[in-house]
Amino acid sequence: MKTILVTGGAGFIGSAVIRHLINDTDHHVINVDKLTYAGNLESLVSVSDNTRYTFEKVDICDAQEIKRVLTQHQPDIIMHLAAESHVDRSIDGPGEFIQTNIVGTYNLLEQARYYWNDLEGNKKALFRFHHISTDEVYGDLEGTDDLFTETTPYAPSSPYSASKASSDHLVRAWQRTFELPTLITNCSNNYGPYHFPEKLIPLVILNALQGKPLPVYGKGTQIRDWLFVEDHARALVLVATTGEIAETYNIGGHNEKQNIDVVKTICALLEELAPNKPEGVDQYQDLITFVTDRAGHDVRYAIDASKIAEKLDWTPQESFETGIRKTVQWYLDNQAWCQHIEDGSYQN
Description:
This protein is α/β, with parallel strands linked by helices. The protein is built from twelve helices and twelve strands. Helix 2 crosses helix 4, helix 4 (95-117) runs parallel beside helix 6 and helix 9 (259-273) crosses helix 11.
């Protein structure tokens, strides 16, 4: 039984990690979240009353508050997920991404270093700092058969991916220079329940149900490797608790899909699961609308997840077909959660 501090625990992936930790392990969880627009405590209602769960509304850029949280709760593991993560927002306003993803990570590393230096015995020997990153730091894949490995050179394309690449470099530097016991994971595109509706899959589901256009960048030929968020949560906890210090693990879903095919799959599932369409809609697929492509849009990402499979015996349990069906059904069953985001009441 350990005490695990999760930054960004009210976000999409962070909340999945916390639900997994509370529901499937005996660990105690400290959720540190600033509650920006993407932080939603309604995603944690199912575990928030558990005696092993504590919430701290704290900004990772606030050094004194981070110091207080570490001193007060004495975590054995830090899982750092707090980040600005939407590429479009990073193009419109890069500053927040620099502040949170780079300065925030630096601040967290420094406070973790001071905290770790003061630990003694087993508490110090077993401490870990797990930094959660993205495959977007690697940039674009040129060939149709190429895959990102843990040694692929970094070539970020957007302000978001550049800020995450910077934070990865900081983590490695703190491990090399100060011997802080760190691990890094880089994941492919996540999807699943509780996903904020600005991202492709939840946006398409909710727009379709309301008879709104389904925007697809360019011709929709961009390829992503899709990872069900609950599979990712299992992998992250496995790495945090059993991974080798100073190592990097790529986590992928083994599900490469063109964006247009993802949208068409969602439309087909909605035809089956939500046949009563909005007025004026004949087929959900008729709502697909091609829009001007994103600036600097990477064409293809794909993860080689063989290292985590071989070293830690992790593979995804969900195929894209099973995962996307669960996801669409979840949004159909949880309209209140979606409505609270649309009307802003979730922030209350």
